[in-house]
């Protein structure tokens, strides 16, 4: 395992659509291992492959039950709404006010190509939506109603301890 360099705002790769994974091989496993390590080291809640310069539909999301690996993920159901501070490892220090569903069910494949579905709530639902947006070349600043000021952020972090960088 190794950490990879996280591309930052302004890199055109972040705005490109990623392609489906067709080979569930060692190269994919190495990518997933590296992404988990990179996310962990950066203390992020999620990371998508284009953020490490790989235009493939792959993401990792931190959940209370551990890291979930998502290959070719799609949101198949959403419910409710949440509005809160959202950030991104590609936009250090920047947070926006973003509306997301309160619950989101994702259908994806695991590293061996086996399909599964998983429901996420709160911050996990937010991360599913955020990471899948990355795979379509959409960054959170496009979804944000506005960028939060440091004072607003401070207030929101005090109210809710679940804001994080994805
Ligand atoms: Ni992100």
Keywords:
5-stranded antiparallel beta sheet; globular; 166 residues; 8 strands
Low-confidence stretches: none
How many helices? The count is 4
> What is the CATH architecture term?
Alpha-Beta Complex
User: The CATH topology, please?
Assistant: Peptide Deformylase
C-alpha geometry:
globular
Helix/strand order, N-terminal first: HEEEEEEEHHEH
According to DSSP, the number of beta strands is: 8
Biggest β-sheet strands, sense, barrel: 5 strands, antiparallel
Ions, cofactors and other bound molecules: nickel (II) ion
Mean pLDDT: 95
Number of self-contained structural domains: 1
Explain what you see:
The structure is a single chain. It is globular and about 45 Å long. 38% of the residues are buried. The strands form two sheets. A five-stranded antiparallel β-sheet has the order 1-2-3-6-7. The mean pLDDT is 95. The two termini are 20 Å apart. It has four helices and eight strands, in the order H-E-E-E-E-E-E-E-H-H-E-H. It is α+β, with helices and mostly antiparallel strands. It has a single domain (12-161), classed as Alpha-Beta Complex (Peptide Deformylase), CATH 3.90.45. The protein binds nickel (II) ion (NI). Nickel (II) ion (NI) binds next to helix 2. Nickel (II) ion binds at residues 88-90, 130, 134, 166.
